[in-house]
Amino acid sequence: MASREDIKFLKNPHLGDQKKKYCRFKKFGIKHIDYKDADFLLQFINPQGKILPRRITGNSMKYQKKVAFAIKRARHLSILPYVADHLK
Amino acid sequence: MRQYEVTFIVDPVLSGDEIKEAAQTYVDLSGSEGNKIVHVDEMGLRQLAYPINKRTSGVYYCVEFQNEDGNFLPKMELALRRDERIMRFLTVKLDKYGVKYNEDKRNGLIGKKRPKAQPKKEEEKKVVKEPVRAKEPVRAKVAPKASTEEE
Q1: Could you tell me which residue, B124 or A86, shows the higher pLDDT?
Q2: Which CATH class is domain A24-76?
Q3: Per-position b or e across B32-46, b if 16+ CB within 10 A of its CB
Q4: Beta bridge pairs of residue B57
């Protein structure tokens, strides 16, 4: 069986490879983050409603601050919850 | 000229006319004292993310206006704070990107991308679904035959 030519690797060699994270705001040129757009802001909070850290979202410092600010504004206006159980 | 944006939530328990009246007073107020109203966005009745004053929904309004300096804002905020019909409000100064974003949104440059993307997905789904449906009966027909042969 070891001589079979179609099996070259026992597992996918790219398994576990980390993709380089990038800041979507810089990449796509998004300059303004709307606090009324709940669907967009949902990408930056976890199921408990907490703001995701930069190391997970890949945002640059500049835009992470803006995202955090927009989420806090949305929470004040009850567009996003302060605490939740199963948001996603 | 600075551009500001006031978003407020009107109590949904009021009747439809009263809600409009409450919103109109603040649209008029933000248009007074030489201010220029850029846009009034009626976002409509929405579910709140958490209850406020034992209400679970609210009528959202967003008024964009231009003001020479910020001296007008404390008056407006005081009026909003004193009004029992207003559940919550937020005043934001828009930077140049915010102004452009709102303009683009009104012209449908931002909102359009999503509706375009969604129908495509739906079409793809339909295309995918139909062959599957067609195949299933064929398989069903084949399967009983096989079973009969086994018998």
Answers
A1: A86
A2: few secondary structures
A3: eeebeebebbeeeeb
A4: B47
B9, B60 Cβ separation under 8 angstroms: yes
**Contact yes or no for B61/B40 (Cβ under 8 A):** yes
What pLDDT band is residue B49 in, cutting at 50, 70 and 90?
A: very high
How far is the C-alpha of B32 from the C-alpha of B94, rounded, in Å? 19
Q: Using CA atoms, how far apart are residues A8 and B81, in angstroms rounded to an integer?
A: 71
For an interface test with B, give the residue of A37, A39, A69, A78 to mutate (most B CBs within 10 A): A78
Among candidate residues B69, B74, B63, B72, the one with its CA nearest the CA of residue B26: B63
Partner-chain residue, chosen from B9, B60, B101, that has the shortest CB–CB distance to A34? B101
Tell me the β-bridge partners of B94: B3
A41-84: pLDDT as tens digits:
999 999 999 999 999 999 999 999 999 999 999 999 999 999 99
Q: How many CB atoms lie within 10 A of CB B77?
A: 14
Q: Does CATH place domain B2-106 in 3.30.200.210?
A: no
3-state SS class at A16: coil
